[in-house]
Amino acid sequence: MKRSFINFRKLTALVLAGGFMAACTENPDPNPTPDPVDPVEETRWITVAAAKMGDNPGDGNGGTLIYSLTSEEAKDPNFSIAPFDNGFIVPSNRTARLQSSEDGNTIFNISYAGDTGGNYSKYTVEGGQTFTQSGTSVSIAPYVGSAPRWIKLFDGDKTGSAVYVNTEHLFDDKGTPDDTSDDTYIRTEATMGVVTLDLVNSSIVDFQESVVRLSEEEEANGYYVSRIDMPTLNAAGDKLYIGARLSKVDPATVESDGDAEILGSKTIVLDYPSLLNPTVISSTVGHGNTNGYRSINSFEYKGSVYQANQGDPNGSHILKIGADNQYDNSYVFSLDNALGTDDAYILAWRPAANGKAVVAYRDASSAEGVAGAQGFFALVDLEARTAQKITDIPYDADFYLFQYQGFVVHGTEIYLTQAPVGKNGNIYVVDTETGEVTKGAELENVAGSHFIGVF
Questions:
Q1: pTM score, two decimals?
Q2: Domain check: are 28 and 125 in the same one?
Q3: Mind listing the pLDDT tens digit for each residue in 359-381?
Q4: Chain center to CA of 455
Q5: Which tens digit of pLDDT belongs to each residue from 198-211?
Q6: pLDDT (tens digit per residue) in 149-159
Q7: 273-305 core/surface letters (b: 16 or more CB in 10 A; e: else)
Q8: DSSP 3-state of 338
Q9: What is the DSSP letter of 37?
Q10: Do 17 and 164 fall into the same domain?
Q11: Which residues have CB under 8 Å from 339's CB, separation 6+?
Q12: CA dist., res. 245 & res. 210, Å (int)
């Protein structure tokens, strides 16, 4: 939905002034410096996502409900919504994986787990709890399973992409079928599957499987790609970047090696739209994972892709992949250094078109709440490489952001939700240009549940 608002008082004044000028014969020339007309203000739907408790507070396993309001209502602290009581139940056995169109008029969903796991559907946003399914559903489960990791590519709401990886330990088979003790570990083979989905026509575009290889040395030492997520299209539209998490086994025992050295952050690069020819690029700036969790983890800005990493022993970084499809290791943006904190861990983030972003994070100062470590928000500048904690948002030990999924970007403003597990909260709107924070609509919560963002 899109509404336009015009300043009718100024419009009336202009009409009257125009009539007066037309009637006046002494000065027929138009005013060389007419009064400016206020720009047309546009609104959009803001869809709030609420994750219901399953067995434990904050687990979100009881399903997902959504409720929409206008951006004006979202900014109004006197406006209140109760999605857990009267929201639309999104089809999903556990927490739904949601995306929205750029204008907010459409919600895309792929059900996660259960009998309907892997089913893609889309809904027209009509306000409140009214979401009307449009088009047909299609299942991507035959390609990537019933609990797919998927994302909407930034190509004008045309395409989505889902991924998975399967792993298998490979040996040289020097032993016998009855005694494999002489077999020697070679490497762990990671087979990646990628599917692209036509979001407009609800159909499969392509599916490809590929083996993802690390360096010979890394593989011989037991490293392998164990999880992938968050496909991102580059500015040229010819490469797909897929975030990766590495795991390691002890080659001598093939047991998990949890104390291993954490390697430089890695990303899988694929040809697009063919989904062929995977290569792996490595950062020398950041270490740890780039697959994120449930929120988009990398974004294109001014021809490059900026990507958060997680599990970095030196705290999360925002990394840069240049137009040459390689990490730009001259770009160093440490959240620890920028915030003056320790152990910063980026949970979710979203930049506006001006290169300024809101980051959800936890750090060494986070209290241990009912569902996990306490979360905070920061305003960061990708170009200046600066970050500042947003202090105008209230924080609580039970403010849990690990499952946070969605921010709404509306011009230079970014909308977000704030509510501790089981407690009421509010929508907040951050003006990324000025840093000003507006407290918006109240979010009514229920015991053990939490909010996972806006779309």
A1: 0.89
A2: no
A3: 999 999 999 999 999 999 999 99
A4: 10
A5: 999 999 999 999 99
A6: 999 999 999 99
A7: eebeebebbbbebbbbbbbbbbbbbbbbbeebb
A8: helix
A9: P
A10: no
A11: 363, 378, 387, 388, 389
A12: 17
